[in-house]
Fold this sequence. Notes:
The structure holds 2 protein chains of 2 kinds.
Chain A: E1 2-6, E2 20-24, H1 31-41, H2 43-49, E3 60-64, E4 67-68, E5 84-89
Chain B: E1 2-10, E2 13-19, E3 27-32, E4 37-44, E5 50-57, E6 61-67, E7 94-100, E8 109-114, E9 117-121, E10 128-130, H1 132-135, E11 151-157, E12 165-170, E13 173-177, E14 185-186, E15 208-213, E16 221-225, E17 228-232, E18 240-241, E19 250-256, E20 264-269, E21 284-287, E22 295-297, E23 315-317, E24 325-328, E25 334-337, E26 345-348, E27 354-363
Antiparallel strand pairs in B: 1-2, 1-27, 2-3, 4-5, 5-6, 7-8, 8-9, 9-10, 11-12, 12-13, 13-14, 15-16, 16-17, 17-18, 19-20, 20-21, 21-22, 23-24, 24-25, 25-26
Amino acid sequence: MQVAVRVPSALRELTGGRSRLTIDVADGGTVGHLLDAVAVTHPAFERRVRDEQGGLRTHVNVFLADEDVRSLAGLDTRLHAGDEVSVLAAISGG
Amino acid sequence: MTQTLVLVGTAKGLFLLRSDDGRGRFEVEGPVLAGEEVYATCIDGRGATRLFAGSVSMHWGPVVRRSDDLGATWTEQDEASIAFPSDTGASLNRIWQLTPGGPDEPDVMYAGVEPAALFRSDDGGHRFELVRPLWDHPHRPEWNPGGGGLCLHTVLVHPTDPDRLLIAISAAGVYLSDDGGGSWRASNTGIVVTFLPGSPSPEFGQCVHKVARDAADPERLYLQHHDGIYRSDDGGGTWVPMASIGGVDFGFPVVAHPSRPDTAYLLPLEGAEYRCTPDGRCTVWRTTDAGAGWTPLTDGLPQEDAHLTILRDGFTTDGDDPAGLYFGTRSGEVYGSVDDGDSWRLLASHLPPVLSVRAAPVGTG
């Protein structure tokens, strides 16, 4: 199945300027599987989202449609064909 | 043509100060890597000049970038240059130090990071590998973080024997290796701690802030501890106190003169609580006798209402002769001297908090 990933503007230099990626994920795949696939095609983008142990970075939010995946099943959140996943910087900083 | 390049890493990006007229006028460029904390930079002049920057974005994590065109462009590897192996369970928080290997091993680079670990690259800084024997050291579970986190912030490679390495960790102290990192031993004999119960001279646990190597005698080292200043004359095997600077022995950086023997510089800060320049006066102190005595250097530095903090990597030399010396403050000023510290001037102001400064003459073709 295919899932869309929206890329924040701050990271588009890591996706060749693309704001949206279309990623193939096996049926029944999860957000974690999606990011595994992104790590193959766009590794520098993916490691902005997860650390080397595979955890979501503290100040990065990943939304499935309009739901923060942390409020769902995190990286185990199931995906479906046509889903759109957004990577966003948390509103934190100083 | 030679340019003097000063890399100023700040809490909000990297600034580059360039002088093309023999260190008369410095132009300020930047920020690049805007928004990222730049704790580590390196100017590697062993071959064609390579610049490195180790930065961390609050959101997007740490990155090593490299520039082969003197800072005009910066690139990163597709795969992470520094990453903890999965079996460690650790994740890279911050890159504290990027240091070239020996002069005869031009593709070797070291990185000191938080959580405290040493990484080594054998391919010119593209890909670093964890130095396992230090990570597996039996002391490591007992290391405690200082205020900056549990960071490996100092890497010194012996100039004639690159297998001899000195690293320093806050707050674990100095560790030495004689076999290129294959084995490590704590080496803090003589460094007194006042912030731990029990023995004032534990085997490890010292809060070493920075170590610098003498220009002429590679066995002579200068050390700024949390609450004391020390010298070693045996390659870091043992440490002896240097003369106190009016009782103000707290500070972060220490810099050795790049060519004069027995000459080093300190920037003491008031106490362990206030951590600003004492009495509102900004003073660099210089020894020319390996710490037997210290001379205040104030010409051109603010001497009233100057409550400045200079961090451990915020003070450096450009290696030139006479020595250029540069330091940056947490309030965003960069001061420089091009006469061995005799006089100083403000090179930049209103920058974000300065975290790191490195400088060198570079060829511009």
